[in-house]
Each structure stands twice: as C-alpha cells, then as structure tokens.
Amino acid sequence: MVDFIFLSLMMTLAGFIDSLAGGGGLITLPSYLAFGLNPALLLGTNKMSSSMGTLTAAYKFRKNIKTKKNLIIILAVLALIFSALGAALSRLVNPDNLKFIVIIIIPACAFFIINKKYLQSSALKQIAENKSARAAKITSALVALYDGFLGPGAGTMYAVFLTKYCGFDIVRSTAIAKILNFCSNIFALFFFLSLGAVNIKLGLIMGAFNILGASIGVYIGKRKGEAIIRPLIIFVCAAITLKYIWDLVC
C-alpha cells in the first residue's frame, strides 16, 4: 500500500512538471522500477500513463495555442511521421551510442532560457507568418525525429525552439509542445501495445494521477506563465544533462 501511495504521488509530481517543462520521465521511470514493475513492461507502461497526462495538458492549454488549426494539424502529422521514422532508425543504430547528443542539445536549451535576450531575440520582433509557420514545421519534424529515436527532453526542446525560432511566447510554445509531444509519443505507445509490453491496468491508474498533476500544472502555468515555466525548464534541463553525464561516465 505504501509503495502504491508513493508511486501515485510521484506520478502526480511528474504530470505537474511534464505539463510545464517536460522531463517527467526522470521521475516516472525510476519510480516504476522502485515499485517493482517488470522492466520489460517499463517503457510501455510509462508511455501510457505519461501520454494521458500530456493529452490532458494539451487540451487544457488549448486556448493558449492561438495558432491556425490547419497549421496545428500539419505540425501534428509531421510529429507522427517523423517520430515513426526516428523509431525505425533506432532499430538500425543503437541510441545508447548517441547519448552525447543529449548533453549538447539540452544545455543549449537551458542557455536560451537563462539568457532571455537569446530566447526573445525572435519573439521581440515581428516575424512574417509564413516564416514562423516554416520554422514550426521544421521544429516539429526534427524534434519528433529525435523523440522517436532517443527521446529525453523532447517536450522541453519543442517549447524552447518554438519560442526561439517561431516568435511564440513561452506559454503558447508550451501549449503547442504538448500537442506535438503527444503525437510523437502515441506511435510508440501503440508499438508497445502491439508487443504486449504494457501493464494496462497500472498504466491507466497511474495515468489518472498523471492527469491530476498535469491539470494542476496547467492551472498554475496559465496564471504564473513565464515566472513558473522558465525556472522549471532550467531545472529539467539540468537534471537531464546530469543524468546522461552520469550514465556516460558510469
């Protein structure tokens, strides 16, 4: 019973952080292992519960998207296609051999967040609508490819790159990022389900707690905006970077 309560609390916390900054997997994966979940079911079960939270965040952030529906549909389709391509590539090249990429990209995201003049250099000036849309499409495709291939920090990358290169404010970028992150995750979830590599009952139960955390996160994010999202993204970037440095060294 104590283990179940602990896992439920961790899933709620992960949903909260993931809804605003990404990186919830840093909490959910070790929590599932500590709970005693069969490692063979770990990734699939985690994908189910986290996808439920991400979808909830995307729905609750919908009024902050402020982007043409046609563009959102195109971005979502690109995320689906390129995440599938990334998953296919991961079967040809061992992702573990490319973890150093995370140590380069994630600190770069933190740099943009910490140094507002770099993050806002695009947002502060008027960006032509067609240029912004083109940058969003490129961002969706490249980050989804990375998400399907390797994964860690993809939600954070979506938010940072959409802010930097598309001229969106960080709350709007976070809202769009939730949709794209869900789309790039859903392929992986169906893949794990097809293999029977998901504890569906546990995934659904923990998904409910992830939804709770995501709902709280979006509620606070809408009211605090950049004041809460910016420091959380910096924290997540630091945590992911340290984890992968540790993995490479040890």
Automatic annotation (TrEMBL):
Give the chief site where it resides: membrane
Keywords of the record, alphabetical order, are:
Cell membrane, Membrane, Transmembrane, Transmembrane helix, Transport
TM spans, by residue? 71-92, 98-115, 179-198, 204-221, 228-246
One cellular component term from this protein's GO annotations in UniProt:
plasma membrane
Q: Where in the cell is it found?
A: Cell membrane
Q: Name one Pfam family in it.
A: TauE
Q: Which domain of life is it from?
A: Bacteria
Record membrane topology:
Multi-pass membrane protein
Query: Can the keyword Electron transport be found in this entry's annotation?
Result: no
Which InterPro entries does the protein's record reference?
A: TM_pro_TauE-like (IPR002781), TSUP (IPR052017)
**Sequence similarity:** Belongs to the 4-toluene sulfonate uptake permease (TSUP) (TC 2.A.102) family.
* Protein name stated in the entry: Probable membrane transporter protein
Q: Which organism is it from?
A: Elusimicrobium minutum (strain Pei191)
